[in-house]
Write a structure and sequence with these properties.
The chain is mainly α. The chain contains six helices and no strands. Helix 2 packs across helix 6. The longest helix has 11 residues.
Length: about 100
Amino acid sequence: DDIVGLYLAALDGADWSGAINGTAPTPVTNGEFSKALGKALHRPAVFPVPGFVVRARFGEMAEIVTEGQRAVPNAAMARGYSFKQPELGRALSSVLAH
């Protein structure tokens, strides 16, 4: 719902220009995402891969894989966009219910 809402708001608003992060306002790590997805699916979270394995496989990209980029939609929030699903747990439950 929110990514479509962001697209529509950007198309309707004359002051929307430049890069707009299509992310929720509450960023999470990969580990937090895995736990939330497991909870939403009513299944155990995926067994975590040790950091040294990720670093060996992805090198410099390992930080993005393990920690994420922590992108925050500052431009959308500054323009007054109101997120329908600002938190991951509720967003996953909503998506998986449909």
